[in-house]
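User: Sorry, folds how?
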Amino acid sequence: MTVELAPASNIALDDPVDDEIASYLNPNEPKSFFLFAGAGSGKTRSLVKALNFIRANCGRELSLHGHRVGVITYTNAACDEINRRIDFHPLFYVATIHSFAWELIKGFHHDIREWLRANLEAEIQQLREEEEKGRAGTKASITRISKIESKGRRLKSIDSIQYFSYSPNGENSEPNSLNHAEVIAICTAFLSHKPLMRWILVGRFPFLLIDESQDTNRHLIDALFIVEKEQSEHFSLGLIGDLMQRIYQDGKERIEDELPDSWGKPSKKLNHRCPKRVVHLINKIREAVDTHTQEPRSDAIEGQVRLFIRKTSTVDRMATEDAIRTQMAGISEDDAWTDRDLCKILTLEHHMSAKRLGFENVFSPLYGIDSWRTGLLDGSLPPLRFFIQSVLPLVQAQAADDKFAVSRLVRQSSPLLTASALEAAADPSVLLKKAQSGVDALMALWDKGEPSCGDVLCCIAENRLYEVPESLQSAYAVLKAQTASSEEDENADPLNDRNSAILSFLKAPFSEIDIYRKYVSGLASFDTHQGVKGLEFQRVMVILDDTEARGFMFGYGKLLGDKQLSATDLKNIEEGKDSSIDRTRRLLYVTCSRAECSLALVIYAENPEAVKAQVLEQGWFSEEEIDIS
């Protein structure tokens, strides 16, 4: 009789990694490190264990010297989760990157003022030079003049500002407010060029741990590298991440290649989330990039993975995907696949979600600007924040006849009802009537049909319901001017890409703002790699569709053998630059690695047989796991 032995448990496989990290967190002999933590590796658990180790072994010593441990995470939700796990202990300062940057610089009002002065003067000078070369009366000229005036007003008032402020979750439209980009830029500049600021950082936070380091602003990471090199005897910089999960373009490429030899480089091997079959697949996906591979837990289920290849000519994609989910219910013996709400449907390219959900007119123009993509995808891009945080709540409150909410929103933000305005008015009730008249005018826009975002902006500005934020002032100037310059002048002096994108976005129906808001908040039926990063779902469907993606950033067909690589792709690969293949592979890795039980990939291809041949050759799928029709 043969007795089969149960496989040995590997649950403690990564315990030595946590012990290694603990050895670096010694105030008397600190050591910086980069922790590789792939999908589902339990990096939050390791981070919390590291923090608890610090508290238990040197927390009292740190507190006596006025030190704290800095922890930078990517989202407020992640901050809340970590704080909850460490019982909100005051030894730790857990914050997003913007909040942490502001924490460092917020007391240096004189230095902030001088940085802003120099920055504004340089920007104004550049705009004046561009105006001299341009043509009067064009949209580009109106935009430049508006920006010169706006920045000039800010420069003129800068000496009267005693204290600067910043809100990580607000619009930051007050005269003394810094915007999100400025906070990062100022912190980066101070750390890079002011030795005192580097000394202050280390004096306050001798340990600084950064989660999702591959997506943290590259300029700030470079500045922190300067601090670490100079203060390595007193400072431990701990970076936690995985380059295969880099999804934002302003993150630092190939961060692991720049690490000094003296750094620790621990690596977690175990995947606690995914079934065995999914772990095998994601190892195959990243095989061409690096040697990092994961092991599934010994007690993990086998799981199911299927690739469904459909023709690009498929007309009703939603019906096709519904039928595929029905197939998955049979394959996995899990009827929940038939309920769309119980499945997580992921797209790699945001244009696909924008088109399917109906906010393409808001999204597409702004997505064309490289440096705006991060803010667009996390909802922090200033032009959109204004509509989401200020305008949309007012419109919704008035539509719901919630007079209390309308009054609160207008009193909170309208320049008509500031304390100084009410105090200066001979009859404050006149201002209240003007504010109500403005709200009525705004809602009257809908009497003529669906207004555009530009219609709403103009109405708000003309009635002074809100101050137009700096990010929209030049666009408003163009809309208000209704320029009639010649086509020849416009062609000779065209709008730059950013201003053109803003004006195009303002043509979008205002109704798309709420759809976009739900999308970036993870409330829509479709989601993307950004929205689900760090999350997990029992049933995952990933949709790959180049025809709906419309972008040059990604190429599913190129990755999976349906299309030839372009000359640009080949050149980027040869020069070691980030290519559409690299980006697509990373996003496919992130989405596939969300699955806890079963995973369905759906690709719409010009040549289904070519896709099948390639994935079989690469060993991603077996013959019986591929469905072509």
Residues 116-181 form one domain.
